[in-house]
From TrEMBL:
Protein's pathway: Purine metabolism; IMP biosynthesis via salvage pathway; IMP from hypoxanthine: step 1/1
Keywords for this protein: Cytoplasm, Glycosyltransferase, Magnesium, Metal-binding, Nucleotide-binding, Purine salvage, Transferase
Catalytic activity reported: IMP + diphosphate = hypoxanthine + 5-phospho-alpha-D-ribose 1-diphosphate; GMP + diphosphate = guanine + 5-phospho-alpha-D-ribose 1-diphosphate
CDD domains: PRTases_typeI
Originating organism: Xiphophorus maculatus
Subunit structure: Homotetramer.
Cofactor: Mg(2+)
Chief localization: cytoplasm
EC assignment: 2.4.2.8
Protein name: Hypoxanthine phosphoribosyltransferase
A cellular component annotation (GO) from this entry: cytosol
GO function term, MF aspect, one: hypoxanthine phosphoribosyltransferase activity
GO BP terms: GMP salvage; guanine salvage; hypoxanthine metabolic process; IMP salvage; purine ribonucleoside salvage
Domain Phosphoribosyltransferase: 38-186
Amino acid sequence: MASYLQIADDEKGHDLDLFCVPRHYESDLDKVIIPHGLIMDRTERLARDIIQDMGGHHIVALCVLKGGYKFFADLLDYIKVLNHNSDKSVPLTVDFIRVKSYCNDKSTNSVRVIGGDELSNLAGKDIVETGRTMQTLLSRLSECNPKMVKVVSLLVKRTPRSSGYRPDYIGFEVPDAFLVGYALDYNEYFRDLSHICILNDQAKEKYKV
Ligand code: IMP
Ligand code: MG
């Protein structure tokens, strides 16, 4: 079973005043739940675990856009550093796929997959809530008969809506709240926020479509 850093349900988070948050979002957020530095530290360790497990296999790293782009880029940067500085190194190519299923803070019933023309054996993902998006994507990937598929997700939500699906590598397990920042969005807003934060109810109304 993948190990992860658990953020407890009663986690109070950190006051926004303690960190730098864009002015245009200050009134939309309650607390910083995962500061950017902690995301980076955990991602560095995931990179090490992945390289250790992959042996010398060639990795096609598949980024699940848009929410996964920050995590993907940072994870690959750490993998590159390991490749530069250790005896063992892993050849890496990249590909990108776009998946869309959310409107406001709710899953819609359709999961749209756009792009991605190569087989993949490593998919980098922002967050798994019910697991439906990832399961849809995995069944699409299996049509390409990849040798191996490993899923790395920065976040997994503890929610009764979960299908039971668990990624191979997990950064953090988080409470059942709507999170934004570090490329996670609410109707396309908040991707330009470095920390992972809880959105307040006012903001859910303000940015509703
Ligand atoms: P699932 O299919 O229910 O696992 O949902 C996964 C997708 O829903 C993610 O890739 C996100 O796009 C979106 N999502 C789920 N929870 C959140 C959240 O808390 N913040 C932002 N996006 C979320
Ligand atoms: Mg989204």
